[in-house]
Design brief:
By secondary structure, this protein is mostly beta strands. The protein is 6% helix and 51% strand. The strands form three sheets. A six-stranded antiparallel beta barrel has the order 6-7-8-11-10-9.
Length: 152
């Protein structure tokens, strides 16, 4: 199902998959409901799309990496599953001691032609078994590299 991104003004633009007609909608009415929206174009084509309220695009990836919990220096290996300019979702390969609000030192290598190594601090936002979501602390560090990588 196609994702449609909502901007900071709660506007989202959808494009009809049949005729290419573009329409901007007000997404405020959908914010507290399901994110799946049904639409009908002026050409009578019906379709569904998902409203995405994130500020930054998330890229699905499969990158090896590692973390160090700052408070106790415990280490572990991970598979990075999603990355954006502001955050990361990863899966720990083994049971871990990561908790919400922990600060992690994250290290991973992008699968870009330069094999760029990324080292960033991240604050844990949520933990669900071995899956962890975290926000990067240093927003500007590697911003150009990650921005370009997201477009690949």
């Amino acid at each position: 199902m196609k994702k449609v991104y909502v901007d900071e003004n709660n506007k989202a633009m959808f494009i009809c998959p049949k005729c290419g007609f573009e329409k901007i909608i007000d997404a405020r009415n959908f914010r507290n409901t399901t994110n799946i929206v049904k639409g009908e174009c002026k050409c009578k084509e019906t379709f569904q799309f998902v409203l995405e309220y994130r500020k930054h695009y998330r890229k699905d990836v499969n990158l090896s990496g590692e973390y160090i919990i700052q408070k106790n220096r415990k280490k572990g290996e991970v598979i990075i599953r999603e990355i954006s300019l502001t955050g990361i979702r990863f899966e720990s390969l083994k049971p871990h001691q990561i908790s919400k609000n922990d600060m992690l030192e994250m290290k991973f290598i992008l699968d870009n032609p330069l094999r760029t190594e990324i080292r960033k601090l991240a604050k844990v936002i949520w933990v669900n078994n071995r899956i962890v979501g975290a926000n990067f602390n240093e927003r500007n560090l590697y911003e150009n590299v990650l921005g370009f990588y997201m477009k690949l």
